[in-house]
Design goal:
This protein has 109 residues and is mainly α. It has helices spanning 10-13, 19-26, 30-39, 56-65, 76-108; strands at 45-47, 51-53. The chain contains 5 helices and 2 strands; from the N terminus they run αααββαα.
Length: 109
């Protein structure tokens, strides 16, 4: 093969990433990559007894599959109002439950 020719064999051009390199590449923790492997969402290549490697294509596919579309806009004020309403409703339910129990006790006497 001459020096100016690029190998056409895709395996010669394949770049494999360690779990650490894959995590660093996309800016997440190694634990998240390991969990994705454990769950079957990412399928690593096993080299030897313990070495796992990922292809950039598999990593990109996993990212694309986990993309949220369309982006979710979160309004913190709305969430706070919803949480406050849920707390009020729970307090009202507790009060009405106490009243019913008190009425039952009073009617038994």
């Amino acid at each position: 093969m001459q020096n100016d020719q690029i190998p056409s064999d895709p395996i010669r051009r394949m770049r494999l990433l360690s779990i650490r390199a894959a995590a660093d590449e996309i800016g997440i923790g190694r634990k998240a990559i390991r969990e994705a492997i454990r769950s079957g969402a990412l399928r690593p290549i096993k080299i030897g007894a313990r070495t796992l490697r990922l292809t950039p294509a598999d990593l990109q596919r996993w990212l694309d599959e986990n993309r949220i579309s369309p982006p979710i806009a979160v309004d913190v004020r709305v969430d706070a109002r919803v949480a406050a309403r849920v707390r009020r409703e729970a307090a009202l339910d507790a009060k009405s439950r106490n009243r019913r129990e008190h009425k039952k006790d009073a009617s038994k006497k």
